[in-house]
Amino acid sequence: MESLLDTTRLAHTLITKHIQIEDFDTLFAQVNDQVSLAGVGGRIQLHTLNELMHDVIPNYCYNSTTRRFLKSPVFYAEPIIRPHFPKAKLMYLYGEKSLSIQYALHFSIYKEYIGQEHFESLLQIAGDHVLALLRVEAKEHINLLFPHALSNMNTRVLPALPASLQLPVVDYGIEGMHDYFAVLCKNLLSLAELKSDIIQTFKEIGNSLLLVSEFSNTMVSDLTRPQKISKHIFHAMRL
Predict the structure, then answer these.
(1) Which of 112, 130, 156, 235 is the most exposed place for a label (fewest CB within 10 A)?
(2) Domain map (residue ranges) of the chain
(3) Least confident of 58-62, 136-140, 169-173
(4) pLDDT (0 to 100) of residue 238
(5) Coil, strand or helix: which one is 132?
(6) Which residue, among 28, 35, 34, has the nearest Cα to 1 in the 3D structure?
(7) What is the pLDDT of residues 75-134, one digit of tens each?
(8) Contact of 218 with 119, CB cutoff 8 Å
(9) Under DSSP, is residue 234 helix (H, G, I), strand (E, B) or coil?
């Protein structure tokens, strides 16, 4: 979306050289429903929060090594019903078929995960104040889940754990250690709703905290960076 908005802004700049129209930010605010009292933060901001809270938090897993959210292969939350994405004409994207194909190939590398590149774009498009709204939404979500998680821990998880856990000798190897703990924790693993309820609840709590943390880190990184190293190609065409 950031790329398409840059393209649209460039098209607006070129058009204003020949005809007189309102500035791009004013037109964008009208389309984004930011000028009405009911618009609050705009359609993009509301859609962003909705996707983060109802899709990323329940359906993604965080990789601490790459600091990216990856879509889980198995979903335990209710699926989101989305309207069909409208098919736009090529003239409204990048002008022609070949450019649209190249841009689609370029951006396809960002489709399999959600990471810093996405957070930077979201902050650029939806504004920095989206972080404050995300904190409020995440806090309310955690407050709803925490009593349930604490209840599960006290009434179901702790009673199912063995009385003592000791590390086996290293000679067992990885497979031997796995089998060792599988036998010790068989009561825990046999819980019918271990993954769909207990683990899912803790995952959503963790993802809520991690989303806020990653957004905050990205904002701090942008504030301390004098200028983005990589610029969209259309920015250079303006010079």
Answers:
(1) 112
(2) 2-238
(3) 169-173
(4) 46
(5) helix
(6) 28
(7) 888 878 877 877 877 777 887 888 888 888 888 889 889 999 999 988 888 878 888 889
(8) yes
(9) helix
SS3 for 58-96, per residue? HHEEEECCCCEEEECCCCCCCCCCCCCCCCCCHHHCCCC
CA angle 78, 200, 114 (to 5 degrees): 75
Query: Amino acid identity of 227?
Result: Q
Q: Which 8-state DSSP code applies to residue 35?
A: S
Contacts of 13 (CB under 8 A, 6+ apart): 24, 238
Question: What are the structure tokens assigned to 19, written together?
Answer: 């005809």
Residue pair 12/238 in contact by the 8 Å Cβ criterion: no
- Give the CA-trace dihedral at 131, 51, 194, 144, to 10 degrees: 50
**What are the tokens at 133?**
């709204």
- Work out the average pLDDT over 226-232: 46
Closest CA to 137 of 147, 125, 149, 129: 129
Query: Residue range 11-26: average pLDDT?
Result: 87
Token duo for residue 149: 């998680």
CA distance 188 to 41: 45
3-state secondary structure of 179: helix
